[in-house]
Design goal:
By secondary structure, the chain is of the alpha/beta class. Helix 2 packs across helix 4. The protein has four helices and eleven strands. The strands form two sheets. Strands 1, 2, 3, 7, 8, 9, 10 and 11 form an eight-stranded mixed sheet that branches. It has a single domain, classed as BirA Bifunctional Protein, domain 2, CATH 3.30.930. Strand 2, helix 1 and strand 3 form a beta-alpha-beta unit.
Length: about 220
């Protein structure tokens, strides 16, 4: 589906390749993830990090409450029910989404460790921009004050991961008016652009995500 020219980074000391898909429709990347997860389980490929921006889309995790998809939403935005954990979220242009395809047998067989590692990745990336981000006890994702800036939801099959994390870089936050993000009523949503007061270079964010990913998961 996606040619080898899309591979933009392969660290010699690491097993992980990074594929940048640019901006793509959600469904085709979802299908690509499932294909890559199956190949990873079969041992046909090594670990992989997929990076992408999506066309506007709402996705509901397997535990989502459909009532969190509000009636006043933009009806032109597609909606998908997917197999990841978590509730409802938005993906769209200006938001960097990462889909690691990792065999956790080679790292640590712990969902909690994996989720906290993804949070740490985002916290460190944001820190490079002077943004002080944090975890909130009992909630998943990364927060600045009382606003969420990064969401997470994963699916593991035989310890091989799919789905992943998203960071609001230059995201149009008005799309969140159509949902109750992650099913959480008492917190808002923010972006790097909103916090820093100017449009950010998503390529720089992408490069830092790749660097931090390799540092956190592979120690280099």
């Amino acid at each position: 589906m996606f040619g080898p020219s899309m591979i933009i980074d392969e660290v010699k000391k690491a097993r992980v390749k990074t594929i940048d898909l640019g901006q793509r429709a959600y469904e085709e990347v979802w299908d690509f993830q499932k294909e890559m997860q199956s190949k990873r389980m079969a041992g046909e490929i090594d670990d992989l990090l997929i990076l992408v921006e999506h066309d506007p889309v709402y996705t509901l995790g397997k535990n989502a409450d459909v009532n969190h998809l509000l009636q006043n939403r933009d009806r032109s935005v597609e909606v998908f029910n997917v197999e990841r954990g978590g509730d409802i979220t938005f993906h769209g242009p200006g938001q960097l989404v990462g889909y690691p395809i990792l065999d956790l047998v080679n790292y640590k067989k712990s969902v909690n460790w994996y989720m906290r590692s993804l949070e740490q990745l985002t916290i460190e990336v944001l820190g490079e921009f002077g943004i002080s981000a944090k975890r909130v006890k009992g909630l998943t994702g990364v927060w600045v004050g009382d606003k969420k800036i990064a969401a997470q939801g994963v699916r593991l099959t035989r310890w091989v991961t799919m789905h992943g994390f998203s960071i609001n870089v230059n995201t149009d936050l008005s799309y969140y008016d159509g949902i109750i993000p992650c099913g959480i009523f008492n917190y808002g949503v923010t972006s790097m652009e909103d916090l820093l007061g100017s449009t950010q270079k998503i390529r720089k964010v992408r490069t830092l995500v790749i660097d931090k990913f390799n540092q956190i998961f592979l120690g280099n």
